[in-house]
Amino acid sequence: MIISDEQVRLAVEYLQTQDVYAATEIVRRPDEATALILRRVVDTLCQLPDVRVDRVAEARELLAGPMPSTQVVADKLIGRILSDSIR
């Protein structure tokens, strides 16, 4: 997933606050309809190929073009690290 500059800004803003966010998780048993839907989703996902040919072709096209500057790559890496640190 590509992190936008706005998402990085929000992540940095969040990291600078002193507020503690406590998430609560509600655990419940899935009913029969939910279990059926989950089984269908899992079955569908299992049928997907391990390699997406369209994504490989897209990556090859990107590699054939001009490479981004080191500054752009560094900005994206730092943005990803900041965003991942709030998970």
Spatial separation of the terminal alpha carbons? 15 Å
What is the 3D form? flat
Rg over CA atoms: 20 Å
- The helix count comes to 4
Largest sheet: none
Number of strands: 0
Strand-residue fraction? under 5%
Defining key terms:
63% helix, flat, mainly alpha
3D structure, described in words:
The chain is mainly α. The chain has a domain at 28-82. It has four helices and no strands. α1 (5-16) crosses α4 (70-84). The longest helix is centred in the middle third of the chain and has 16 residues, at 32-47. It starts with a helix and ends with a helix. The mean pLDDT is 82.
Topology readout:
Elements: H1 5-16, H2 32-47, H3 53-64, H4 70-84
Helix pairs in contact: 1-4
Summarize the structure.
The chain is mainly alpha-helical and 87 residues long. The protein is built from 4 helices and no strands.
